[in-house]
Amino acid sequence: MSGALAERVFVTKLDRVGFENIEVKERFDFGLSHTAGYPLFTPDLVALMHELIPADQHERVATSVIITARKPDQVL
Amino acid sequence: MTISRDLIHADEIDAVVGAAYRALESPTGAATWLYTQDQLEWLPEGARMWALGVGNPVPYAELAAGESVLDLGCGAGIDVLLAARAVGPDGRSTGLDSLPEMVDRATVFAAEAGIDWVEFIEGRMEAIPLPDESVDVVISNGTINLAARKSRVLAEALRVLRPGGRLCVADLTIVEEDLPPEILTHPSAWAG
């Protein structure tokens, strides 16, 4: 979770390194029910998230996005 | 700069992430819900069970027959195989992962799928061991959020793409203010 960027920061980084035509194609909520089986969502971390994050936010603790971009034909 | 980024250094992040993924022995198919029935039925069981991404990027990559594709942080290779199916035997689908265990698994699953126009290489996303302008499309699925040096990863993706090449990334994003600092600073929270 702490490694994830805000969407606008992700898009800005793509722009700054030189990509163009940056588009967010899909967004969907990533919730605590989706975390099972991912190695870094350890049981103690998930328990802490259940404890500290309000229940009405449990199914949108992050947003999964699909972003597309293009390398320019000519890189200056 | 966030609290979490103050508390943990790049090499520590790499160690935490690598150790966590290396220790995973019993995959649960955590990410199979992201894929279509058609995709799942075509894939070897192992590739399905080891899926650990956070999206289904291959359909959005709009791959064409004969293209070359690179998957950054390919894990056990589910998206490499799906990309290989899309580009066909005249194309090339390459998976890059820092863990030799994942490279070995992906190689086995590709053989099970009967796909021989794939290649899996061990290496870091921050230093892709491929020449400049050597691939048509770069994809990744839930791995850039794990990298300590994200701009470096993106710059490397740009370097290996041919001019006009495409990037298609599935990844987690957060609104940092929505998450308690105890979560953001948890040792295991560099997750995805």
Distance between the termini of chain A: 35 Å
The DSSP helix count of chain B reads: 9
> Helical region count of chain A?
2
- The dominant shape of chain A is elongated
In which order are the strands of the major sheet of chain A placed? 1-2
What does the largest sheet of chain A look like?
2 strands, antiparallel
Strand content of chain B: 15-25%
Q: Output mean pLDDT of chain A.
A: 89
Biggest interface pair, residues each? A-B, 48 and 61 residues
Alpha-carbon Rg of chain B, integer: 16 Å
What is the 3D shape of chain B?
globular
User: Could you give the order of the helices and strands of chain B?
Assistant: HHHHHEHEHEEHEH
Can you describe what's shown?
The complex is a heterodimer of chains A (76) and B (192). Chain A has 76 residues and is α+β, with helices and mostly antiparallel strands. Chain A has helices at 7-17, 43-52, and strands spanning 20-30, 62-70. Chain A has a two-stranded antiparallel sheet. The longest helix of chain A has 11 residues, at 7-17. Chain A is elongated. Chain A starts with 6 loop residues before the first helix and ends in a 6-residue tail after the last strand. The mean pLDDT of chain A is 89. With 192 residues, chain B is of the alpha/beta class. Chain B has 9 helices and 5 strands, in the order αααααβαβαββαβα. Chain B has helices at 3-7, 10-23, 37-42, 45-49, 58-61, 78-87, 100-113, 150-160, 181-184, and strands spanning 68-72, 92-97, 118-122, 135-141, 161-173. In chain B, strands 3-2-1-4-5 form a 5-stranded parallel beta sheet. In chain B, helix 8 links the parallel strand 4 (135-141) and strand 5. The longest helix of chain B has 14 residues, at 10-23. Chain B is globular, with a radius of gyration of 16 Å. At the A-B interface, helix 1, strand 1, helix 2 and strand 2 of A face helix 2, helix 8, strand 5 and helix 9 of B.
